[in-house]
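Curious: why these numbers?
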Amino acid sequence: MEDEGSLSARDGLVFGAHWALLAFIASLGAYYALSLLLSGLAFHGSIGLSDLGPLILLAFVPNLLLGLGPVFASRRWGRGVRAEFGLRPTGRDVRVGLACGGFSLLAAYVLNLVLLQIYGDDYLSDSTTDVLRNMTSDLAWLVLAALVVVVAAPLTEELLFRGALWTGLEHYRVPPWAILVLTALLFAQVHGEPERTLALLGQGIAIGAARLITGRVSASVIAHATNNLPPALLLFGAA
């Protein structure tokens, strides 16, 4: 008969085998639940959306949950954020991240040209950057929006997709190429832009390649930030 200490240790190992995928599922579920709640409140007029500042902060709240789950789970059941995900960038992470970010921008450019031929001139007219840019010319809020696009969103999204999801699939010995494609597919889907799925898939593969090459999330964060930099700079066209 096993003693309580043995059972506790064994249970910890069993849960430890699942923590990454559980963190991914819980974080994504919380993201959708809060997004629906905030959308409902906005629709019924409970939240005013006339000012850009509150809108930026409000829009990022659900996105924040994408990164909090992996951080909490890695600290509670894993070896910590740095050990599990490699969030302290090395020189190689920077080089690989910049290169993969450049390839992501190239992939987006080529694939968007194809999609423009399919969907017409209105294809990109309702992008997030266009919406934000047209709402204000206040430089301070535009700087905040740019920081969210270039720093905050890449960090939280990469912790979820190339962090928790990648680690969970890797634990179950899913082939690396399949992990790259699966994480890119889910990355494209969570953005909720069906007409841009092909372009987002190409970007997700390029960004994920940074994690595949280095084995570290910090490289994919840099790639993602590089990919988001041009849209962030477009925000300042209204300033």
